[in-house]
Amino acid sequence: MSQQTVDERIQTTCLVILATTAVGAALWWLQAVFVPFVLALFIALGLSPLIDYLTTKLRVPKWAAVLLTLILAVTLLTLAGMLVMTSAQRLAINAPTYQALVLDQVDSALANLPLQDLGVNPDELLSLPLNAISTAAISITNAIVSLVSQGSIVLIFLMFLLLGGSAHEAPANSMWVEVKKRVQKYIAFKFIISAFTGILVGIILSVLGIELAMAFGLMAFLLNFIPSIGSIVATLLPLPVVLVSPELSTMTMFLAIALPGAIQLGIGNVIEPMVMGDELDLHPVTILLALMVWGTLWGIVGMLLATPITSMMKILLERGERTRPIANLFAGRLDELNKA
Predict the structure, then answer these.
(1) For residues 63 and 194, is the Cβ–Cβ distance under 8 A?
(2) 135, exposed or middle or buried, with CB in 10 Å at 0-12, 13-18, 19+?
(3) pTM of structure
(4) Are the C-beta atoms of residues 310 and 290 closer than 8 Å to each other?
(5) 267 touches 252 (CB < 8 A)
(6) What does the pLDDT read at residue 56?
(7) Domain extents for the chain?
(8) CA-CA distance, 141 to 297, in Å (whole number)?
(9) Which pLDDT band holds residue 168 (cuts at 50, 70, 90)?
(10) 189 FRET partner, CA 20 to 30 A, in 5, 226, 257, 279?
C-alpha cells in the first residue's frame, strides 16, 4: 500500500469523524423539528401498505384512502393518549396513598436497622422515597405534555407525507425501494409482535387484579419496540404499584412480575427470531450502541427509532465502496473487514 493511499484513507477517516460530529450536533440541536418528522416518516412507511391495498385492491381514490388511513391513525393515537392520560390522573389521585404506604414500608424496614449506631439519621432516609415519587411524577407529566404537544406536529407531517407520495414508482433495484421494503417489513412484524405482547401482559395483569393493568399493557407494547432494554423495563414497570398494594398476596405479587417477564422472554428470544429472522442484518452490539446514541440524541423516541434508523444507515453505507467496511462492521462481519 503506497503512502498516498494511506494518506487518503487517513484524510477520509478524519472527514468522516468531523462530518459525523457535525451531523450529531445538528440532530441534537434541531430535535424539536427532526423528532416529529422522523416519527411521522416511519408511521407513514408503516401505513403506506394499507393505502396501497385500498387504492389497488378496493379501487379507492388516493385522497379517500389517505383520509381513511389518517382517521384510523388518529383514532388509535387518541385512544392510546386517553388511556395514558387516565392512568396518569389515577396515579396523581392515588399519589398520597402510595406515598403513605411507601413511607410505612420504609419506616418499618429502617426500624430494624441499627442506623443510629452508624451515625445515619433515619429521617433523612425517609425523605428519599418522597423525592423519588416527586421526580417520577414530574417525569411522567413532562413526558405526557411533550407527547401531546408533538402529536399535532406529527399528524401534520404524516398527512403531507401520505398525500405527497411520488407519482411514479422508483426502479425495483433502487436504494429507496430496498430501504422501504426492509423497514416496512420490520415495522409490520414488530407491530404485530408488540401488540400480541401488550395484549397478553394487559390481560394477565387484569386477571391478577393489578391497578392500571391496561396502561402497563400499552407500555409493554410501546417498549417492545426498544430491543432488549425495553422488555426489561416493561417487566419491572408495574413493580412500584404492585409493592404498594397491600391487598395483593405474595404469590400475586410474584406472578405479576414473573408471568409478564416470561412472556417478554419467550416472545423476544423464541417467537420474534423465528418470525423476523435476521431481517435487519445488525449485530446485537450495534443495536445496543444505536440505542445509546439515539437515546442520548432524541430520548425515548430516539430509542424507539434506533433500530430502523441504523438499518437504513447500513443500507446506505453498503452502496459505497469506501463505506462498505462500516456496513460490514454494523453487521458484525469482521472477516470481511480483514479482506478489505
Answers:
(1) no
(2) exposed
(3) 0.75
(4) yes
(5) no
(6) 86
(7) 1-165
(8) 21
(9) very low
(10) 257
